[in-house]
C-alpha cells in the first residue's frame, strides 16, 4: 500500500481554469481581477472590514507588526511553542521576542504568563492559534487593559469561528497563511485582516513599497514588496469557492480520529464548545510513557507519514534563553500531527489509527 501523506492540497475545483485565465490575460504580477476577487472572498468568509493579500504568511506577520509600530527597543510577547515564522517576524521588525509558556489544555499562550511578562517596553502581544485551537479571550482582555496592540498569528485557522464569528476580530490585525498544506492554499500566500480603516490603509500601502494609494510612484513612508500575484490569487479564489466543502470534510476527519483514538491514550487539544474549528492538522500528544519519535518511526515503516509538532523557539540556537517553559517543552516532546488533508478517505483515517495504536503498544519506554 502506498504511504499516506500528512498533507496534499485539494485542487479539484476551478483552480486550473482560473490560473489559465490569469496567464492568458497577461496579468501575472500583482495587478489583476483575481487579487481583488480573492480579497473580497476573504472578507466574505471572515466578515472582516478589510482583507489584504500578501505573498506569504510570514511576511503577513512582519507587515502587521511594522504597521502597529513595533520597532527597535520594543518587546513582543510570543508563545515559545509556535512555528518559527511568528518569532522571526519580531526579529525582522527589530524588536525582541519575549517567550512565554503555553497551557496544557489547549497548547496555546497562557494568559497568566502574558500578564507576568508585560514590561514598560512591551509593544505588542503575538498570540498564535495552533492546530484545532484558538487563543483564549483573556489574552485580548489583558492587552486592552494595558493598551497593548495584538497581532494574532492565525495562519493555521482560516475558517475557524468562535460563537459564529470568524477568528481574528479581537486582534488589531490577524494574519493567515495560504501555504500548500494550509486549509485554503494559493501555493505560497498569505493575508492580513483588520476592522480598523486607518490601519488597513497603512497595511495596504506598506505592502506596496509605501506607495501612496492614489498617487503612482509617490512614496511617503518606508514599505516592502509583499504583494500576492494574480496567479496565486486565482488559485485562492477557486479554493474559497469550495471552502465550506473543504472545512466540512476536515471536521469530519478530525471527529473520526477523535472517536477512533478515544481509548488510545492520545491526548487532544481541548476546544471550547463555541469554537467551530477548521481542524487544520489533527495533532495529539502520545501518552507520557510512549517514545514519540519511535512511534513516528514505526508509523512511517507501516506506510503512514506523520510530523512532530513544533520545537520550542527558546531552544533554537539564535533564540536560546535559559528559560524553562515546562508545558511547551512537554507538548513539543509528545506532540504528533496525523494525515489531515481534505481528500483523505475514512478508510485511510481508520488505517492511520490502527497503525498508530499498534505503534503505541510497542513504543513504550
Ligand atoms: C504556516 C504558518 C506560518 C507561515 O506561513 P508561510 O505562508 O509558510 O510563510 C506562520 N505561523 C504559523 C503558526 C504557521 O503555521
Task: Describe the protein.
It is built from 12 helices and 14 strands. It is α/β, with parallel strands linked by helices and 365 residues long. It folds into 2 domains: 15-241, Type I PLP-dependent aspartate aminotransferase-like (Major domain) (Aspartate Aminotransferase, domain 2, 3-Layer(aba) Sandwich); 243-362, Aspartate Aminotransferase, domain 1. The strands form 3 sheets. It has a 7-stranded mixed beta sheet with strand order 1-9-8-5-4-2-3, with helices on both faces. α6 (137-146) links the parallel β4 (122-125) and β5 (149-153). The mean pLDDT is 97. Bound molecules: pyridoxal-5'-phosphate. The site of pyridoxal-5'-phosphate (PLP) has 14 residues, from α3 and α4. Residues 56-58, 82-83, 85-86, 128, 153, 155-156, 177, 179, 190 line the site of pyridoxal-5'-phosphate (PLP). Belongs to the DegT/DnrJ/EryC1 family. Keywords: Pyridoxal phosphate. InterPro entries: DegT/StrS_aminotransferase, PyrdxlP-dep_Trfase, PyrdxlP-dep_Trfase_major, PyrdxlP-dep_Trfase_small.
